[in-house]
Amino acid sequence: MKRAQEKIKDLVETRAFTEVHNYSDDPARSLDSYLFTDATSDLFARWLDALADLKPNQGTARALAGSRGVGKSHMLAAFGALASLPEYRRSVADAHVATSASNLKSGRYRVARVERGTRPTLQEELSEALGGEEEMWRTEPAKMLAFSAGMSDMPLVLVIDTAFERENRVERDDGLLLSELANTARDLSVFIALALDDDIASADGANVALSDTFQIDYLDPEHLYRITDTHLFQKNAQSREAIREMYRTLRTAVPGFNWSEPRFAAIYPMHPMIADVASAVRLYVPTFAFLPFAAAAGAHAVNRPALSLVVLDELFDRTERGLRLAASLKDALAAYDHLALQGVSKVPIMQRLQARLVLKGLFILSLDGRGATARELGAAMLLYDEQHPAAAIERIENMLNIFAQTASSGSLLRSEDESEARYRFNIIAPVAVIAPAVDEIDQDTEESDETSEPLTLRPVTLSDEELAEWASRLTMRQVPASLGEPDARDLVRDALADWLKAWRADNPLKNFDALADEGLTTRVWNLAEAVRKSFGNAAIAIDAALSKNTSLEEGLQRVADIFGNSTEKLERSSERLAQLTGFIKELPERTRTHNYLSLAEPTEIDEIESARRELLAIAGDIHNLFNEESVNRFNLLWREFHARYTEHYAKTHDETLHDNNRREQIEVLTRSDEWREFEALSQLQLVNRRYWDETTGMLERARHAECELPVRELL
């Protein structure tokens, strides 16, 4: 590489990052340290406008969804600060937010913060935040909220967030009570701001209630990467070109390096995998956050060569202490320690440093329950050989084999993933993200649709006949009526293996992150989460059973649990899978069509322009892809518009460039007396021949003004 001598500091200018540990303790500092992006600026402004528009007997309930560590708590704290501290409203750096903040009432809004997880029940936490007896909150929460709202002339802002530095998820179902509070707030001057964490409820039933009563916004992790790019690691045009060159080098040299160039450039010198695993790390280390880690690690990396990115081993080193405090990781870390001591020593001495890096990377990639293949680890850790790419993957595979053979039984799992072996520490990953608005996907659903619990082993409660029936339902194949029948287990395993292979080939979730920005709406995200929590978890359970990490009975029991042991829920999940698959398949074509309609030249023909307007109206809302009638109408109109527009454009093109009348006029001109006189005069030496040359040149171009392109095919 030409830039091999450059260092990271030659390409980026690192900036300090102000980290606020507990946002609720210092709202003013939380607001001062908040870094706005286009997305969060718009979201903030909409919430502030809703607060400013509150009427005496008309409140609202808003919820903020997103993966852990994405910035929900920071936004809620900054929002509360703007409400309660009017003196800070004019100092907001973002003009869009400052304008909306200026529309708030001039006084201090009453802001109360409920910290979930600090008391055994939400009622007790409400009592602590708003006052009143716990028993009254337990029996009459609506009455108590109305009483609290009436204690001030200013609207009440009730911020509900999970307590800072909680070590464990809040193991309780608060969904129904939160929904009741939201319903009550509609008739009061109350603004409820809820951080929709993954531990609000363990089943979608409560989430359906929440989506009925809360307006839910989604905080996309992309805004963190935007902050990283614009605030933490600033780059000029020259350095961006160098980073683009490095990206192309890695894409060519490193097998499996499949991250996008925008992501690579945005968070450089962080490896893109750091962003992918940040939410999984935070599940076990509550104090971890992507931005502070990136700022600290980037500051320490500035003197490295430009291609020495911050990778997973540094993430492991910086979070190891927190990981070891997580009780659920005790066994996995014991297995890691055993391999670090015994497994690494069995690797050839010249490869032991790489082996330690591989081991750390594998542990981090196991936190979400997926693990990695040798190719994925090589790409994640940037362990590659430009001259012999396959040899580097083979070395990593040999290391992983040694670890698998050295590990104690069941501590390091190996399974076949298409043509590669996948390895992972035996970590049962908790649910990372909750689907906050299930009923936006299926508004006819009135009860729980998905169980979506983490993959834990449960007692097998179904009979052999019921388990076989679930195998048949999932695979849509005939299998023996009972697992106890001769050869039944082998036949069921074969059916499940075929289903898993088909799922991996057609799984719409693997292409979800590559969707165009206009496709990443809250509704689509909810749909993807529903599919991930149903069929995605079912695939994990089946894979564990086929790999013999669990028994066949336990795997099928888990499948039944995922779908609530209900055929109806399986059918609804299948419908959602079909919706998501169709949406992801059709979105690129719909986007292309929308661009075509926008760029096509006006025709001034009423029928064509009328069809264009209706098509643009339908294409303007991508959710119309979920409506079969709308899709059919769009396709019909598009065929009609495209045929008429093509014919109109091609006809105009032909009339312009294949004009026989023009040729005839040229012939008339060149046979005229005036032309002969002009031609004769041009032969005289005293006359400048430039005029003759220019004129004949123009005529020649006019004669050959033809276009042989296949216009109809191009359109």
Short structural description:
This protein has five domains: 34-220, 3-Layer(aba) Sandwich (Rossmann fold), CATH 3.40.50; 224-425, no CATH class; 438-583, no CATH class; 600-656, no CATH class; 658-714, no CATH class.
Look at the structure and give the mean pLDDT: 83
Describe the largest sheet.
5 strands, parallel
| Proportion of residues in β-strands | 5-15%
How many angstroms separate the termini?
A: 42 Å
The total count of helices amounts to 32
Shape: globular
Order of strands, widest sheet: 3-4-5-2-6
**Secondary structure category:** alpha/beta
Low-confidence stretches: 201-206, 431-457
The share of residues in helices is 55-70%
Count of all domains: 5
Kindly state the number of beta strands. 10
Rg, alpha carbons: 32 Å
Give the oligomeric state of the chains in this entry, treating copies of one chain as homo and distinct chains as hetero: single chain
